[in-house]
Amino acid sequence: MSTEEMFVASLRNRIRAMNILWERAASDLTLAQVNHHEREGVLPMAFSFSHYIKAQDQAISRVFLGEEQLWISGGWAEKVGVNIDVLGREETVEEMQHLRFGNFEQWKAYQLRVIARTAHALDGISAGLLAEVLMPQLPPNMQNIFCAIVIGPGAPLRKLEVLECFVYQHGLRHMGEIEHGRALVGLQGMTS
Predict the structure, then answer these.
(1) Separation CA 69–CA 59 (nearest Å)
(2) What's the rounded Cα separation, in Å, for the pair 189 and 192?
(3) Do 75 and 110 touch, CB atoms closer than 8 A?
(4) What is the extent of the structural domain holding 66?
(5) Which of 141, 127, 129, 134 is nearest to 155 (CA)?
(6) How many separate domains does the chain show?
(7) Which of 52, 172, 181, 187 suits a disulfide with 45, CB 3.0-4.6 Å?
(8) Each residue of 54-101: pLDDT tens digit?
């Protein structure tokens, strides 16, 4: 196995492992638990689920499959009964702390479809595909995001960074929020 093949396999495996954590995290939560709002200024788990899984859906659907997001094409906002239907990247904590799901079983169904779509897309990645440049540099409104730190000033955004930053590292960051939220409602974390 070449170094490039080993790297691609590692990235594929890391994203799949992380998505297993997302599946486990949702599996034993109730609607009341996922919507639990600890106090002002603290986001409910519903926000972290909504923000991250919809971002994964967007990245995989648009960048790797050239398709519309499942969230949109499947009418999931209505099925899930989400009361605030925005990604939550540019909105404030004060706004997003009010996000709630109406039907967590429908959310779980949507999340499973996103994860399956991601697994399918990962089957087709290669080092050459990951090297493809999507934009010569991030736009001004994205200069303060984590990915901007990863790629550095003036550097191009490649498909690699979409998977590394917007899918993998982003997913792990928000999984930490989920694990903390689970503790606040009396549940265990996802790993030891």
Answers:
(1) 9
(2) 8
(3) no
(4) 3-184
(5) 134
(6) 1
(7) 181
(8) 999 999 999 999 999 999 999 999 999 999 999 888 888 999 999 999
